[in-house]
User: Fold this.
Amino acid sequence: MGLLEGKTALVTGGSTGIGLASAVRLAAEGAHVFITGRRKAELEAALDVIGSSATAVTGDISNLADLDRLYEEIRSRGQGLDVLFANASIAALGPLGEITEEHFDTIFGINVRGTLFTVQKALPLLNDGATIILNGSTSVDSGDEAFGVYAATKAATRSFSRTWANELKGRGIRVNTVTPGPILTPALVGLTPDPEQFKQRLATAVPLGRLGRPEEIAAAVAFLASEQSSFITGSSLYVDGGLNQI
Assistant:
């Protein structure tokens, strides 16, 4: 028996990186996992990796009609929702003097607005005792150059988890943030035109001397999703190789 045997889970942004690794892990722990993302081909490829205990629904979390369609798919299965990993987010570099309206609106639209409505629209489906996990970032604490807008969205996410944990405690629903350090994902590699130098710089700053693996974040997500974390809510679980701890 896995940690999530018979449970139903949703992972947004579940076709690649941390989202895909988390979907694989939750399915391995016994959950039926719904994944969503904007690119149909990547979602279909992800299903081959996750296996038969997964369902893919194409959609954009910043589009409320897409969220409604996603939750209708989950509702039609008739078992509600036990785990929600609001993972979908985007990152882009932007020094203060170069930030545009489009840069701001796009990142806040997905990372903040999209996360808020992902959780809000899930409320009628969430079973009592369910768990919600939001995807954070060590950028909230580090003040890295050119990450200002992205870090601000993750600060909002962290604030959401505290407030929602308080609001949903009456239903026994726990809300936590998983806070990754630099993780080797396609999104991280795509941030700069010189990914090798960027990865090396990030790894040098990590006390453990390397970038994290998506599977290491997935392990933390499975922990927060399960009864093993039954006395944890409103918290931020850092999985950062010591980056913001030492």
